[in-house]
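From the pipeline queue, job 12 of 40. The input is one protein chain; the requested action is below.

Action: predict structure.
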Amino acid sequence: MGLDTQEAIVGAGVVGCAVAHALSSHGVNTLMLEAEPALALGASATNSGILHTGFDSVAGELETQLILRAAQLREELLEELRLDTWTCGARLQPRDEQERIAVRGLAENAARNGVPVVREPDGSLLVAGETISDPVAFVHALAGAACAGGAQLRLDACVCAISQDSGGTIVLELGDAERVHAQAVINCAGLFADEVARMAGDQVVEVYPRKGEFLVFAMPAGEPLREILLPVPSALGKGVLVFPTLDRQHVIAGPTAREREDKGDWSVEPDARELILARAKRMYAPLEHAEIVGAYAGLRPAGRGANYVIERSRTLGNLIHVAAIRSTGLSASLAIGEYVTGMLADGVAIELGPARTLRPPADATPSGPWWERAARHRAR
């Protein structure tokens, strides 16, 4: 049994769905293959949901270029995608002279990236463009809009082999022995992008899971949080942030950053509360008496010695790998879709039609808190 398509995307997380949306908006026939039984059950839904401006990203890097470009694209596309967001802004509050120096450096970096920030008299840095979103809704909106434009979505569709026939068509073998024949394939398999690449004979980057755990609190009565609180980064990392949810009913604190090997371990580890709570309370004192109502863990697809690896296969024509898209993938996803679409067009793998507006169905997003959905699934 076989299925023919113009483009196949392996993985329908936020990056895969953004690529599908970009292709569908130009009339390209696309098939999304998702190994999970539903959308947004992996890293795309177990993050902070914050859409970052790129104020603190390293100037000139591909990751930074894509985050900055995505911020431009969101201005137009969020309305088309029927996505509710909250541009509440973020604050970094230095506590000592060393942190004040670090904040000054961040302000200078933001200027290099063209991101507006404000230094306040007390030394804090305000980043007005930082935005809260529902990451599950984001994935479903992209997928729904892509399908409205003619794309197809297959769930429980795990790719187990990749080859190329004598005519240059790429053949993907699925777990049920079905074969998909595609003119071009985009590998957006997240944690498993390196394994998919090896099926094609490529060694692009080793992807490992960087576990990030979050605690969810009921919003403290009388002292609601109305902005994102970002830690001042240090040599040890970016640290724990504190932020309100889109529904204004909860506060989330995290993440941890644990280097792990098991791509299937989505557990919240026993010491997560200890690692998060003290740091979070220093930033937002009302958490001292706030009720913890949930917790979840995400596995970010980090690359060993590499980040944002977007490149053509060295072994198969018209195969593009999109790997090691770490925690900023949600923020950069729209620009990644545009970037990959451009790569395919430049390589004569596709012919782009005129751009068109695509809208997802009104009921595209599952009900219930986004942070709870993936945690329930992983607990089974």
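Job complete. Residues 62-80 form the longest helix (19 residues).
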